[in-house]
Amino acid sequence: MADNTQLSTAVGAGDTIRDIDRGGIKTTVAQLDIGGAAAEQLVTGAIPAVGLTIQLSANPVIQAALYAAGNSVGGLLTFNNAYRGVTNPVTLQDLIVTDKSGQNAPLTILFFDSNPTNGNYADKTAVTFGTDFPKIIGKVNVQTTDYDTINAKGIAHIKNISAILVPNATTTLYAVIVTTGTPTYVSTSDITLKLKLYQD
């Protein structure tokens, strides 16, 4: 691919310094005139193009039963490789909940910076945090009014969330869905949660 010269600045007799763009990777080089022979020297390392938008999905096994307010829906959810690295944050942009039974229950989705191993998040039981409470790094509420019902199925799309989630020595994002209503789900695969994430 041909270089696209973005900047050229004279730095001395016969010398120039310029930024070039090779397929989205910017590199600064110096063109040096040494005794009449030009030599191109790398001045700064390549700066990789930043940012990648991904979508991750979870379809937890739930119970075809009545849930009480405060119950976990589907237990602990793990989104592997949500983060590029163990210290690289992501920005939660959008969140989609689909409900095949059309219960359209209000939900709160909690996010943790590392594996919450000290609380209770089992499906269809009351959520308790134990010592996991400080691990919470975000939440998104889905209200009954956020759903549209089409063909007796519920779809909620929460847009423009812009929540920055920072991991704690992991590339996995952990989440728990908590219902604040009393839905009666019809099948064990009724609920799907999709996350649109921007990886830094």
Question: What does this entry show, briefly?
Answer:
The chain is mainly β and 200 residues long.
Task: Provide the descriptors you would attach to this structure in a database record.
6-stranded antiparallel β-sheet, 14 strands, disordered N terminus, single chain, 200 residues, 2 domains, Jelly Rolls
Question: Could you please describe the fold and organization of this structure?
Answer:
By secondary structure, the chain is an all-beta fold. It folds into two domains: 4-42; 52-199, Jelly Rolls (Sandwich). The chain contains no helices and 14 strands. Strands 5, 7, 10, 11, 12 and 14 form a six-stranded antiparallel β-sheet that branches. Strands 1-2-3-4 form a four-stranded antiparallel β-sheet, with no helix packed on it. Strand 3 (25-34) and strand 4 form a beta hairpin. It is globular. The protein starts with a strand and ends with a strand. 23% of the residues are buried.
